[in-house]
Write a structure and sequence with these properties.
alpha+beta; 3-stranded antiparallel sheet; 1 helix; elongated
């Protein structure tokens, strides 16, 4: 069987959107750095800790998801 090149998505290449300018260091030393990424007509937020937000159609909602995650991560336990 021969290897095949990945098939491009019909809407074009995925281009990451601007990430929220927030870099938070909680008390436990884990650094949280949120960003957003697009795939087709959907955008989702993710964090360096492994958290992933839901796929959204609205960029503003994905950014809000990221901000909420960073706020929750900054709270002391």
């Amino acid at each position: 069987m021969t290897a095949r090149a990945p098939h491009p998505h019909p809407s074009g290449p995925s281009v990451p959107g601007p990430a929220p300018a927030v870099d938070d260091a909680p008390a436990n030393g884990t650094r949280h750095r949120a960003s957003t990424s697009e795939r087709g007509s959907f955008i989702s937020a993710g964090c360096s800790c492994g958290w992933r937000g839901a796929a959204r159609r609205a960029r503003s909602q994905a950014r809000t998801d990221a901000e909420r995650h960073l706020t929750a991560a900054a709270r002391p336990e």
